[in-house]
Amino acid sequence: MDTLTKVKSGAKVDASAVAAITAALLAGGYLHAGKRLAGVKKISGQMSPWKRAGILELMKSREF
Predict the structure, then answer these.
(1) d(Cα 36, Cα 59) in Å, to the nearest integer?
(2) CA nearest 41: which of 21, 61, 57, 63?
(3) How far is it, in rounded angstroms, from Cα 56 to Cα 17?
(4) Neighbouring-strand partners of residue 4
(5) Beta carbons within 10 angstroms of residue 20's beta carbon
(6) Can you tell me whether residue 13 is helix, strand or coil?
(7) Rounded CA gap, 45 and 47, in Å?
(8) What is the rounded distance in angstroms from the CA atom of residue 29 to the CA atom of residue 50?
């Protein structure tokens, strides 16, 4: 399994996709040095991840 990473559900995710996700999390400040990803899974049957990200961004930008 050189180029594929086995995921908990048994699905396989390309190692380059995991690397891209990790890089995005690091760049966004959501993953810090010494931490690691516990798993990667596809979101299905839920809200679009793009829509969710937009809503979260709006919520974070509001001042209370």
Answers:
(1) 27
(2) 21
(3) 23
(4) 14
(5) 11
(6) strand
(7) 7
(8) 18
Residue 57 belongs to domain spanning? 4-61
Contact 15, 5 (CB under 8 A): yes
For the record, the structure tokens of 22 come out as: 């990790």
Q: Provide the token pair at 40.
A: 């990667």
Per-residue pLDDT for the chain (64 aa), expressed as one digit of tens each? Answer: 344 455 455 557 777 888 888 888 888 888 888 887 777 776 667 778 888 899 889 988 887 6
Amino acid letter at 39? G
Q: Is the pTM of this model over 0.70?
A: no
Residues in the chain: 64
Q: 50 is written with which tokens?
A: 């793009």
